[in-house]
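Project standup — Tuesday

K.O.: blocked on the structure for the chain from last sprint. Re-posting the sequence here as requested.
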Amino acid sequence: MLLGQEGAAQAAPSISVEMNQIQQHEGACQLTFMLRNTLESDIATLVFETVLLTKDGAVNRLTLFDMRDVPSGTPRVRQFNVPALACVDLGQVLINGVAECSGNALDAQTCIQALQFPSRIDVEILG
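H.V.: unblocked you, prediction finished:
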């Protein structure tokens, strides 16, 4: 019985926003995110207020990243080209807030509480 409870705790519904890859692309730093929604509802719209920080911790810029729709149970990859940013200078990506989150029984607060931020690369993603 205890094993089942531990498994249930590990499988809590979430919105995973993985920092997957960065690369220079046509004068811009291209950021690639892998999103996984394990909530019961599809996300119709997901927009993050995002802060890009240099390796020294200085704010490079504040911007909105529109992740669009994120269906439940179906991974999605989203890419953003950030002009006038050298990828080698990027230290962290901070999800400063959820500007919009919509779907059946979803709102910004529900989405904020479900967020998880893994990273496959040296650039850390925070929230």
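K.O.: great, moving the ticket to review. Strands lie at 15-25, 28-37, 43-54, 59-70, 76-83, 90-102, 115-116, 124-126. Helices lie at 2-10, 108-114.
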